[in-house]
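step=encode ok
step=design start
structure_in=
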């Protein structure tokens, strides 16, 4: 994982968001190949191995090799769809792509000039200075309200949808599979037989008349 992307990560346990303390064993050209991330609040430790930060907390991850193999041949199409669904039009923002969507990580990063965290990506999805690879279970390890959008696939744990809603900022979007019910707090904008696209309510700014 590229060193600068580590700043985006947070502990997945239930307490106030805090930076993680990094300890590196092997680093090559600012990519962390092996090391660990520690939480100063609860002492949880997350390993980095082969450049992938592991936040799965021991959860067994679902396999979907056939679907991933099919998706690997249409990365540009996935990137175009993900960019449109998530309204990824803000250079420098952070987007999260999970499972099959992770195949589009590098293409979307270049197309929209965004940083991408790829969750439970296939082995042939590569990291870069703008793409970080994570293994996750039912929680997304980022600061509350810090990302522009999240795209999830049907093979991620269903409970991760709650973490996605927490991760996106007001006005941000979530793409979810039909086997995950859009939770309260999201307004569904569109859907088809496979996915729905929903938006978190934008922040309301109260206006007040200035006193003279």
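sequence_out=
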């Amino acid at each position: 994982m590229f060193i600068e992307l580590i700043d985006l990560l947070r502990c997945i346990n239930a307490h106030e968001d805090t930076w993680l303390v990094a300890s590196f064993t092997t680093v090559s050209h600012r990519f962390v190949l092996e090391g660990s991330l520690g939480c100063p609040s609860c002492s949880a430790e997350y390993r980095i191995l082969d450049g992938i930060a592991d936040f799965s907390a021991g959860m067994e991850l679902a396999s979907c090799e056939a679907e991933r193999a099919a998706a690997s041949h249409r990365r540009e199409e996935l990137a175009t769809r993900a960019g449109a669904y998530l309204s990824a039009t803000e250079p420098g923002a952070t987007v999260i792509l999970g499972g099959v969507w992770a195949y589009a990580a590098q293409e979307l990063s270049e197309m929209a000039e965004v940083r991408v965290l790829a969750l439970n990506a296939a082995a042939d999805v590569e990291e870069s200075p703008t793409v970080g690879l994570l293994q996750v279970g039912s929680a997304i390890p980022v600061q509350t309200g810090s990302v522009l959008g999240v795209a999830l696939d049907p093979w991620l744990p269903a409970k991760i949808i709650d973490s996605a809603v927490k991760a996106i900022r007001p006005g941000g979007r979530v793409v979810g599979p039909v086997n995950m019910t859009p939770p309260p707090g999201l307004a569904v904008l569109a859907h088809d037989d496979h996915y729905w696209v929903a938006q978190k309510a934008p922040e309301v700014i109260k206006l007040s008349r200035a006193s003279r």
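step=design ok
step=annotate ok -> The two ends are 54 Å apart (CA to CA).
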